[in-house]
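Researcher: Next entry in the queue.
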Amino acid sequence: MKQIITHFTDDDLYKFTMCCAVIDNFPRARVKYSFTNRDNTVYPDGFAGELEKQIALLENVTITDEEIRFMSSRCNYLPEWFLIYLKGYRFNREWVKVRQDDNGHLHIDIEGCWADTILLEVKILAIISELYYIMTGEAEKLDYEAYYRKTYAKAEKLLGAGCIYSDFGTRRRASFMAEDTVVRAMKECSLSREWKGRFVGTSNVYLAMKHDLTPVGTMAHEFVCAIGGMYGPQMANHIAMNSWRNTFRGALGTYLYDSFGWDIFSLNFSEDFANLFKGLRIDSGDNYEQLEKIIAKYRSLGIDPKTKQIIFSNALDTDRAIEIQKYAEGKCQPSFGIGTHFTNDFDGIKPMNIVIKLVAAKITESWTFYNDTCKLSEDDGKHTGKPEVIKRFMDALNIKQ
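Model: Structure for this entry, 401 residues:
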């Protein structure tokens, strides 16, 4: 079996930015992650063993001088000490436990220092997705020339409609080549003539380097959810925003607000934070309802929402992004992060519905116990975590069941 992940920065930018913030603010924190397959997929016999081999191969993947130079030049908000840290970083297979049950279902648990294990999630998800198609034989169906043309057509529609957008598709891509094809097609289309819209880059740092683009992204729910586990959900957003400010001093100013729902975030989103952060990211709930809540909040603080960037990233496809663009234009500065629709939209291939979520945290290794945490989505029925933990957090936030 070929090695699937061969480049250290074949990963989403926000894993690196969060890693930096974790070291800066929570250097001794330890965490647990758990894998969920929302479609209850039955994996081929021997899948867990092959996955373990791929995870072990990550121990040989280290950052190169070329990657360091690229991050230093394009990600100047990352301090030099962090790039030095990445030079010494090594993966360890002992952090990950994989098993496959008698019914073929996959189980993965990750535990360790937060600053170490934070760089595993996206890589493991990308491995699982690509490995699944290889082992089922579906990888042989992937026609990359046709996919280039299909992607180019998507780019023409988005750029013509005035959308400002980026690729967010590493974690559930059909293969590395699929995402590489997407980024190449998007860039070449964007340069083919003058467009109303703009392709701003990709969340994948390695592909940004390969195609001379800007790596894009800020944070994931993980950052806020871990803090919620350590301190409680009521003040998690406040602590997260303060921590982010402490590390990046106003850079990377798009905040992902929906880890514990809009209502508690809104109570924590004071005028100083609203002025500090350049905008917000909508990743769950009804896009239009969420946008109107955001607009109302900014106006209540005396801030013109048209000066703020709103990134939409909630299960988007080309047509949905264009519809939102038409609605949001003139209300804010809309932009779009599109994932699986870009990197796993082959005819006859079903994208995997898989996630790895942080489920428990403790602020220091000297604690004898972890605090469980969860994610409370704005989408009904998409909360992530143990049912009893979800109930406890909802009760603490006075959210009706």
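Model: The chain has a mean pLDDT of 97.
Researcher: Noted, moving on.
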